[in-house]
């Protein structure tokens, strides 16, 4: 579905992605792991059109047609079926929950928006309870649910999800990851950036590890969870077969 081939991206004078190649197949959850500054968020911003690659290709294959995302503005990328749920939620606090959700469907011209609103209220019952309230008065976990629901209102084929567990209590993190699995089960492919490597590898099919803008490791998520380098650097565990501290 999504292919990045030798992508290089600069932000001002800084090289943030160097020769990044990765793929996301339809129906997968693919995780991007790495420390702060590794290039994970920059990868999502590049796919969604908010950063432009200096070189390389970004291809989206939808219904047998290939689209070059590197040359498209963000609204056209959304229209192709790519939704970006950004780090920090970025909900509109002065608008109601319902108004935020309707904004997620602003490019749609079909007659199923109402049905999708009902689906979001079913997927996130707390949003149904708070639908007329200001989004800025929601808790952090509720705002994260709203941000995901707003992205889903565009009916994406591919969801770019950036740090959904950031700042949340453990029980809310588990709830968010249950929702991510349910989203994939409903047919939406997910490219997931997540600091909680253990949770990400548990829910993902495959994963890539970025370091200073380059892909250092990639493979099956469960196999990477057992890789000594991943266990030590991202899971806080001693390599298998060795004693911990």
Describe the protein's architecture and organization.
The protein is built from 10 helices and 10 strands. The chain has helices spanning 40-47, 74-80, 97-104, 113-123, 125-129, 140-152, 170-185, 197-203, 221-225, 228-233, and strands at 2-11, 14-24, 29-33, 53-62, 65-68, 82-85, 158-162, 189-193, 206-211, 214-220. It has a single domain (2-93, 154-233), classed as P-loop containing nucleotide triphosphate hydrolases (Rossmann fold), CATH 3.40.50. The protein is of the alpha/beta class and 245 residues long. The longest helix has 16 residues, at 170-185. Helix content is 35%, strand content 27%.
Properties at a glance:
245 residues; alpha/beta; Rossmann fold; 6-stranded mixed sheet; 4-stranded antiparallel sheet; 10 strands; globular
- Topology pattern, helix = H, strand = E: EEEHEEHEHHHHEHEHEEHH
- State the domain count: 1
Ends distance: 43 Å
Q: Using DSSP, what is the number of strands?
A: 10
Q: What CATH architecture label applies?
A: 3-Layer(aba) Sandwich
Which structural class do you get from the secondary structure elements? alpha/beta
Summarize model confidence as the mean pLDDT: 90
Any idea of the CATH class? Alpha Beta
Radius of gyration: 18 Å
**Per CATH, what is the topology?**
Rossmann fold
Major β-sheet annotation: 6 strands, mixed
Strand percentage: 25-35%
């Amino acid at each position: 579905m999504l292919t990045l081939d030798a992508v290089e991206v600069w932000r001002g004078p800084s090289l943030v992605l160097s020769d990044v190649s990765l793929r996301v197949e339809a129906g997968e959850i693919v995780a991007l792991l790495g420390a702060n500054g590794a290039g994970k968020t920059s990868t999502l911003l590049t796919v969604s059109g908010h950063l432009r690659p200096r070189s390389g290709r970004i291809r989206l294959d939808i219904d047998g047609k290939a689209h070059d995302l590197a040359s498209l503005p963000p609204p056209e990328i959304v229209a192709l079926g790519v939704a970006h749920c950004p780090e920090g939620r970025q909900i509109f606090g002065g608008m109601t929950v319902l108004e935020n959700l309707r904004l997620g469907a602003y490019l749609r011209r079909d007659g199923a928006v109402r049905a999708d609103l009902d689906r979001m209220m079913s997927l996130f019952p707390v949003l149904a309870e708070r639908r007329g309230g200001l989004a800025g008065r929601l808790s952090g976990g509720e705002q994260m649910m709203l941000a995901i629901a707003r992205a889903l209102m565009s009916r994406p084929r591919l969801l770019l999800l950036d740090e959904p567990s950031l700042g949340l209590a453990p029980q809310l993190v588990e709830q968010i990851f249950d929702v991510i699995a349910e989203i994939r089960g409903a047919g939406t492919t997910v490219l997931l950036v997540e600091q909680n490597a253990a949770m990400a590898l548990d829910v993902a099919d495959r994963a890539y590890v970025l370091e200073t803008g380059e892909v250092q490791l990639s493979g099956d998520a469960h196999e990477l969870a057992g890789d000594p380098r991943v266990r030590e650097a991202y899971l806080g565990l001693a390599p298998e077969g060795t004693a911990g501290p």
